[in-house]
Amino acid sequence: MRVWRTIGLATLATAALLLASGCSLGGDDDDDNGGEAVATTDTTATTGGDTGGDGNLLSTVQSRGTLNCGVNEAVPGFGFVSQGGEFEGFDIDYCKVVAAAVLGDADAVEYMPLTAEQRFTALQSGEIDVLIRNTTYTASRDGSEGATFLTTTFYDGQGMMVRADSDYQELEDMAGATICVLSGTTTELNLESQFNARGVDYTPLAFEDNDPLQQAFTAERCDGWTSDKSQLAGIRSNWPDGQGGPDALRILDVTMSKEPLGPVVRDGDTTWASAVNWAIIATLQAEEFDISSENIDEALGSDDPEVQRFLGQPVEGEAFDPGLGLAPDFAVEVIRSVGNYAEIYDRNVGPDSALGLERNLNALWTDGGLHYPPPYR
Amino acid sequence: MSASTAAATRRPPPWRDVRVLRVALQALFLLAVVSLVLFLLDNLVFNLRRLGIETGFGFLDQPAGFAIPDSDFRSSQSVRAAIFQGARTTLVVALAGIALATVLGIVVGVARLSPNWLVRRTAALYVESFRNVPVLLIIIFLYLAVFLRLPPIGRAVEWVDVFVLSNRGLVVPSLAGTGSTGPFLAVVVVGLAAAVATWIWRTRRFDATGQPHHRVLWALGVVVAIVAVGFLATGRPYGLSLPERGDLGVAHGFRLGPEYAALLFGLVLYTASHIAEIVRGSILAVSRGQGEAADALGLSPFQRLRLVVLPQAFRIMIPPLANQYLNLTKNSSLGIAISVYEVTKVTRVSIAQGSPAPQAIAILMLVYLVISLSIAFVTNLVNRRLALP
Amino acid sequence: MSVLEPTAQEPMPVPEPPRRTVGPRAWARENLFSGPANTAVSIVFGLLLAWVAYRVGRFVLVDARWEIIERNLENLLVFRYPRDELWRLWGALFVLAAGFGLAAGIGSRGAAHATALTALRRAAPMLVLVGVLLAFAGSLQATLLVAGVTATAVLARLAGTRLALRGRIAPVIGLASLLAAYLLVAHFGGVGWRDWGGFHLTIFLAVGGIVLSFPLGVLLALGRRSRLPAVRWVCIAYIELIRGVPLITILFMGAFMLGFFLPEGVDTPSAVTRALVAITIFTSAYVAEIVRGGLQSVPRGQVEAAQALGLSTLKTTRLIVLPQALRAVIPATVGQFISLFKDTSLVFIVGLTELLGVAEAITKQPDFLAQGLLVETLLFAAFVYWAGSYWMSRESQRLEQRLGVGER
To answer: pTM of the predicted model, to two decimals?
Structure first.
């Protein structure tokens, strides 16, 4: 009988230990436990008062030493897990950009994959510091999700992909068609409203996950696939030759919605928002100045005072500090460890990558695109 | 004398009085439970307000904003109507699944005890393969590897006006109501009532005189006669809606979609493997003497099964069978993974379109509770009727 | 004439020798071709089986492209666990092999000695699974490590049968090795459970779920049989409510709402924690029903005898009723664990990447995108689940026989 008590105590001890590690946020490195618990309590207290804004998060993140970044783990090109178990992608690189700027170390990031439903709750509750998860900037999100949207990093739009041998040119042609769409996103909403506005009947097939969706489209279960054009382009450029290769598919020349994608932070902390925002703008400015991770060291010795100021080098004795709370030379670390916008773009979604997307709207204003970094002065 | 009776009637002090303790403990327990629940609800309401999410049930009257395929539901109808539509789908899947799984399960369970080695082995192979794989995997796999691989609509398999088979579904002719459908249905109801009356009459005659009742034949005959007369009298009560193949789908007819079929067959295959094991166990639990007595009486193996063994096995298998029925009903929620718009999927989509999560999920759980309790109630009734007195 | 007189008749004909009843031909005749109907059925089924075997075999061995599994084996097993800390997982496997081997050895003392053949047959599903995994891994180091783990388990089991330890210490050793393995993997520089994924996460959710829900389930079962109506009705309400809804709704509740129930100042728990809480709540109701059955099976005479001896209610429950009840429900509990093991695949729907989630996620890598490899990955995941479940259900049947449950 005594052994039952022992078993009971052992079970309770196990349970207590598991719960204890769970309460300290999953039991990371023991050193981080205490710091993390304290830090996040602070930020949750900030959230409790809606109009707070005492700028705690920047110092919290800096003292914690890691950045909690909400990401996607299954979106090709933007956020996915490589064969080596590492996170890679366009949005992942921007997490690194923020970490490099705020913490001086691009690898000091804790990636937290989130579903579409969880992302805003996680941001509000302080579980993550910044949400970089191909999230569209909309008025309702700005207003009622308690979120602040920062500089757009990727200008996208919702499109429709069909088989090349079908006759569709416009959405009106698709009366009675079956359209595959990913459930729980603005894509589904836009699909409904676009077809309703045109008075066209259709049948939606809404999957929770992209994989069954893709199989259904391949099997010609549905006639159209609607998603962000960047996603469609990536899927099209990887279409296997056994199915006819990329030429077997066509993306309609219709933009069903504007989808400006960018990082998101919590309402009410303007210091944090500004800091993260300028970290992102730095990558665009770096491309405008033609500074990349390859020539950063030469650029440090440049004569151009604009470049000097941008890189936080002393101009007439003093380095320029705009008062963001970041180190004056934060841009150097960003460019050196992650690169400028062109490098980030080309590495993850550019013409030579798996997605094969041209710059188009995502080029700098000097090249006819929409990126126009505000002056750093 | 008076001292002892006085001692016997003196109550112990409250902290040792069992009656007082019972009431006190219960009061304390209830207090603890109620305060815990209130604490949680309080936090819930506070956090919802903080995030600007509504805390009432007004969202039920809002337009849904999404369409439900294969139904008449339009996106302008209310969320409440959407949930009803989803619940209807869940019920249909559950009832059809229960019926099919029971039939298949009994067949496979009996096959497991067949004298033919190949049949035994095949049944065992089926049971052991499907029992040990998660039902979600079976459903997804059936959808992707079987139903989606049917020919696309452009190359559909057709048999003129009888059916069209493609990966958009199997379409068969359906009955379309006409003007005289109403009266015809009334005649059918009359026929059924007459059949029940005939059944009772024949049974009474059998009890009184001992002559064979043939009540099944009599009842069937009555129904068929009355329905035939009604059919002729009302003209054409039903028309046939024949499938017509188009480029994008099949118009008219009754369609069984691939998602629906994958969900249904996945559930049936999985649950039937469990039911087969239950049936096998119940048949083995019927004492051997019964089977031997049946053999001694000269009954064929089939008669032995149908008249002696199975009825007794039935009594044993009802409770675990009820459990499997409940599991099947709850597993129908997995339609969410392959875009079947049963009630869980509808709730999930409406949450994504802005309904508040806590209330929506509470309603969802309520729907399942009602369905589960109904099924449990019915099976309990059957169990009690079959139980040995 | 008299019976005793010899008759001058021709000798009786020598009867034909009886048909052989042993040997493969006789067996086939009896089992497959005993009558026309039986023969027809045998032919039909035989052809059917042969065709199925051919199609499956052709797919698995010829058509399928297994490269995606080879390159992602680590992802499937442990997902994002840092690759340079994998030694912790191997270490945990060694610890578990030693602990569970020892416990099994102690527990099987007195049982009939198994020959090597029966031991192999018992372990067959696991051996097949490990073999397939090693074939995909294709690395000598992995093979050696697996051999080491197996050797540790076998040696520990032998040691358990020889050592002079009390039989009741076996479960304690099992639990202690679980704890040690967990600490090795998650603490002291390891990675906490919020970052676990793949098959590792599946096992963690299943084991964690059953271990955490067991105490709660026992309490609920006892409460349900309480004589205090308030306690009884609250427990009944909880059990019936949880058992009446699908696991997916409780997972949704955990995923979307758990954070809302917590007061200000407490951080939202991680996704894995939320799933674990949901699974625990769900399983505890089922464990409660199982334990209730066990409690009902303890004869009333036991309770009456305990009362006659003057034991209080608490002592009776703790010392007399519970031990017998729990012993009776071990097979049913193992069955529930197997169910739970399969049900962990549902957490995929709330965004966690356990085995099924990884199987879907790896088809999105640039090398494998849009090639319809979902069939291969799903088959692999199904095979892993199948091997685990099948092996555990066979062990559970053996355990049931050994414990003599249902026999007086």
So the answer is: 0.80
